Amino acid sequence: xxxxxxxxxxxxxxxxxxxxxxxxxxxxxxxxxxxxxxxxxxxxxxxxxxxxxxxxxxxxxxxxxxxxxxxxxxxxxxxxxxxxxxxxxxxxxxxxxxxxxxxxxxxxxxxxxxxxxxxxxxxxxxxxxxxxxxxxxxxxxxxxxxxxxxxxxxxxxxxxxxxxxxxxxxxxxxxxxxxxxxxxxxxxxxxxxxxxxxxxxxxxxxxxxxxxxxxxxxxxxxxxxxxxxxxxxxxxxxxxxxxxxxxxxxxxxxxxxxxxxxxxxxxxxxxxxxxxxxxxxxxxxxxxx
Length: 289
What we know:
Blueprint lengths: L4 E5 L5 H10 L4 E5 L2 H9 L5 E8 L3 E2 L1 H9 L3 E9 L3 E4 L10 E4 L1 H5 L2 H5 L5 E4 L3 H11 L4 E5 L1 H7 L2 E4 L9 E8 L10 E8 L5 H11 L3 E9 L7 E8 L3 H12 L2 E10 L4 H6 L1 H7 L2
């Protein structure tokens, strides 16, 4: 089997890199991208076989742009990964906490560390491409006044020291990632699906859709409204649905098609659980470095 190329947002040891290796294996080839859009573009134009993008974090919430990108590039969701997130304040060797005048990181990492950052007076907080690229900037510039918020893997990869451990706002934090493909990938016995619907502009139709899902005994684990860029005051709804019986899922889709303006199955895959990922987070970070 040939080694697939996986597009990721960020550099080596970033959370996207960890998620890609967790799903595809340690020997996978990753293609580093500067943005989520670039990840999707690489897949769409056959520069990468698959891609990994974060879709939601337990603290910072959903990334609406990524829902839109999946639609714009007509990509398929073929899997998911829940990655436990540990965040530390990292700096070059010898730097003290009192030396820090600027903290940089990916917006999602900063968003998950608001309580810690609120206590860092007279320190500038700067959004940057991703945690790993932020660390590279720190190391290459040999900065004595800058720190980065990132995971343990970033610190080990770039030789940084931990100034403050556990800066995340909550314990047991995790990020959920979608595994994306340009085409369909057959998954034997799928038990989860991502579906996009647009309802007609009539009162109660979204409620009717939810009743259909409930009546067929499916588990709606996520509902996210997403603005449709080229349609004023129109929202699509992204649904993540778990099921034990695939025939019940097919029946649900048939019923939903009768009451929705547009319905698209974005992918069918095997569900994962954040609880399992949190339990093994220490082993995960050790094994990936």
